[in-house]
Design brief:
Radius of gyration: 25 Å
Number of helices: 25
Shape: globular
Bound molecules: alpha-D-glucopyranose
Distance between the termini: 60 Å
CATH superfamily of the largest domain: Glycosidases
CATH architecture of the largest domain: Alpha-Beta Barrel
Oligomer: single chain
Number of strands: 25
CATH topology of the largest domain: TIM Barrel
Number of domains: 3
CATH class of the largest domain: Alpha Beta
Length: about 650
């Protein structure tokens, strides 16, 4: 029945389409719309079916998709078709990403284009340019408080600059990732301004309340994201004489997706950026899209329905474009952002692997891999056509987002263990060489997260200050070890700009009033190009890190077993300092790579007996793909030097 209704609605919509749309060549569009409409209709109906204007809204949605399809450049339409044929293209081990701010990295978009050669020098072929859309000068949350989704911020450049950047990257076979901040707008966005002036249409774009009654009910179950700088989830707007929901900073107004007009606007904006050349769109804070009294307002079922609907609509207009879910949530919840009840991803093809990130940092602090092994064991399987974004650092803080159950299973007590990690990384703990700072300290719950650059958290800053060559060596080894893990784990490794040359904390943020309250700015540096030049000068810190990563990326590209086809087998090495897993080439199961990392300051060994049973690994012939050397052996055991990793294969 549903199916018939959807069919006749589609026919009605198509016959009512505006003449200019009908006259276009829409062959591929119609085919894809036909294939996806039942799903689009069902989801749209589940979300908005109760409304009197459901039919008009459906009509507007289809028109929006059709108009963006008409605007889609031929070159991208061609790419869509190629990617539809080769639909697992992004699971390949060929891809390595880097995330950066265009201003922080290069000054602006023009200069970023001029620096494209740097990515090729390193081997990076996916560039995530963090928000470039117009935002207020003072209250921007690093670009994540957008005041105009269709304008490039003056400080970054212009629309032409982004077009030119997209062209340049495409010529070099580098993928472009852009952000669309879906969950909220800046209070200076036109919609928020109109709402403030009393325009009810736009008040309905947000969650607006005339008194505290409903906000208080929400507050009972909603956590605080920025408890120290933006406590509470609602802000009083004087002009409007009303409260508005502001989950993040008080100038970031949450969009109201129970209004289909908001959905359609934001869908249009996603497609707009797809048409400007984004190969991948990073969807910010997706866990927060749906709000419900009595819940944490995260990971709600409707948030998933919205994402499924966005994916289906994108599939019709720009099927070559992938989505990244930025959902920094519990491990069981994260995997749901790939989509559920489907073999192929039905929401976002790619998701941040915040679990692996936090677990790796746990291993660094404890020099033990007990929690890392346990946590990865509990990481749910992903869908077939889906992949992780594996990272060590990004522009945000590190949340200790692993499960208390896993902490217990690893043999620790959750509260003191988390406390220890915060102390360790903020340098409060005895011998810790880490130089981070707490972020988002919550006085009520005692929770905190961690800010700091990779190099400073790994001890490089302290080692350089001490001028101690051994400490410097260790910190560099830790940096390289962590990259050795994200490059082989399965998924797209995402480097963070500056980490490849050992950039330490930038403490100047405290001098800037707009940044001083937010410790995340200590790891959002202005890239130092003079320092980057040292990558070519032998034996400098920059040279050692950069060349190691460069080599790792180029070796990774040659190792088919590193492509992400759910082909990872965890190995219980019996040694609590090692993290070990096998990667199996999905086309030739005899082609295996044993990855092993030693998180301890002392050499560790691993018995290989149990590996023989998995076949193939004959240790007499083992060699390390990364260094090209034979690993050290003692009797029958593999010896892994301190903070080293191997990518082992039988010759
Ligand atoms: C995302 C961004 C973060 C920002 C938040 C609110 O999580 O990564 O930087 O503060 O969204 O937009
Ligand atoms: C929380 C949110 C995430 C955001 C971060 C910013 O972890 O879940 O979306 O990026 O806070 O600190």
């Amino acid at each position: 029945m549903y199916e018939q209704v959807s069919h006749s609605l589609l026919n009605e919509i198509l016959s009512d389409l505006k003449p200019d749309i009908k006259s276009e060549n829409l062959r591929h569009f119609y085919t894809r719309l036909g294939a996806n409409f039942y799903s689009i209709y069902s989801l749209f109906h589940l979300l908005y079916g109760e409304r009197d204007d459901f039919k008009q809204q459906s009509q507007r949605l289809v028109e929006t998709m059709a108009r963006q399809y008409m605007l889609r450049p031929d070159e991208y339409k061609q790419k869509d078709i190629e990617r539809e044929k080769d639909h697992t293209w992004f699971l390949s081990q060929q891809w390595t990403g880097m995330a950066l701010y265009s201003d922080g990295f290069a000054g602006d978009l023009k200069n970023l284009k001029a620096k494209a050669g740097y990515f090729q020098d390193l081997g990076v072929n996916m560039v995530h340019v963090m928000p470039i859309m117009k935002c207020p000068t003072d209250h921007s949350d690093g670009g994540y408080a957008v005041s105009d989704f269709r304008e490039v911020d003056d400080r970054m450049g212009s629309m032409e600059d982004i077009d030119e950047l997209a062209n340049e990257l495409r010529k070099r076979d580098i993928l472009l990732t852009l952000d669309v901040v879906l969950n909220h707008t800046s209070n200076e966005h036109e919609w928020a301004q109109k709402a403030s002036q009393g325009d009810e249409k736009y008040q309905d774009y947000y969650y607006v309340f005339s008194n505290r009654e409903v906000p208080d009910m929400f507050e009972e179950t909603m956590p605080e994201i920025f408890p120290d700088t933006a406590p509470g989830n609602f802000t009083w707007i004087e002009d409007m004489d009303k409260w508005v929901m502001t989950v993040f900073k008080n100038y970031q107004w949450d969009l109201n997706y129970s209004n289909p007009a908001v959905f359609i606007e934001m869908m249009d904006i996603i497609l707009f950026w797809a048409n400007r050349g984004a190969d991948i769109v990073r969807l910010d804070a997706v866990a927060f899209l749906w709000k419900k009294i009595g819940s944490t307002c995260q990971n709600e079922r409707e948030a998933h329905l919205l994402l499924q609907l966005m994916k289906d609509c994108c599939q019709v207009t720009a099927p070559g474009v992938l989505f990244i879910a930025e959902a920094i949530v519990a491990p069981v919840e994260v995997a749901r952002y790939f989509g559920e009840d489907a073999i192929n991803a039905k929401e976002c093809e790619i998701a941040y692997n915040a679990t692996l990130m936090a677990l790796l940092w746990d291993a660094v602090a404890t020099k033990s891999t007990k929690l890392l092994n346990q946590g990865i064991k509990s990481l749910p399987d992903k869908l077939e056509r889906a992949t992780w974004l594996n990272y060590i650092r990004c522009h945000d803080d590190i949340g200790l987002g692993f499960d208390d159950k896993d902490i217990l299973l690893a043999g620790y007590d959750p509260i003191p263990h988390r406390r220890f990690l915060i102390d360790y990384f903020t340098g409060e703990f005895n011998h810790s060489s880490a130089r981070g700072r707490p972020f988002g300290h919550n006085a009520k719950t005692g929770d905190a997260r961690i800010s700091g650059s990779l190099a400073s958290l790994a001890g490089l800053e302290a080692a350089l200050d001490n001028g101690d060559p051994d400490e410097i060596d260790d910190a560099i080894k830790i940096i390289i070890l962590l990259h050795g893990m994200i490059m082989s784990f399965g998924g797209i490794p995402l480097l963070y700009y500056g980490d490849e040359i050992g950039t330490t904390n930038d403490y100047r943020y405290v001098e800037d009033e707009r940044k001083s309250g937010d410790t995340r700015w200590m790891h959002r540096p202005a890239f130092d190009w003079d320092k980057a030049e040292l990558r070519n000068k032998p034996n400098t810190v920059e040279n050692r890190i950069f060349q190691a990563l460069k080599k790792m990326i180029s070796v990774r590209k040659e190792v088919a077993a590193f492509a992400d086809f759910n082909n990872r087998e965890l190995r219980d090495s019996g040694n609590p300092h090692l993290f070990a897993f096998c990667r199996v080439n999905h086309q030739h199961v005899s082609d295996r790579v044993l990855v092993v990392g030693n998180f301890d300051a002392h050499p560790q060994h691993m018995e290989l007996d149990d590996l023989k049973e998995t076949g193939v690994i004959q240790h007499s012939q083992l060699y390390d793909l990364y260094s090209g050397e034979k690993p050290a052996m003692f009797k029958d055991a593999l010896v892994i030097p301190p903070y080293r990793f191997y990518w082992l294969q039988a010759r």
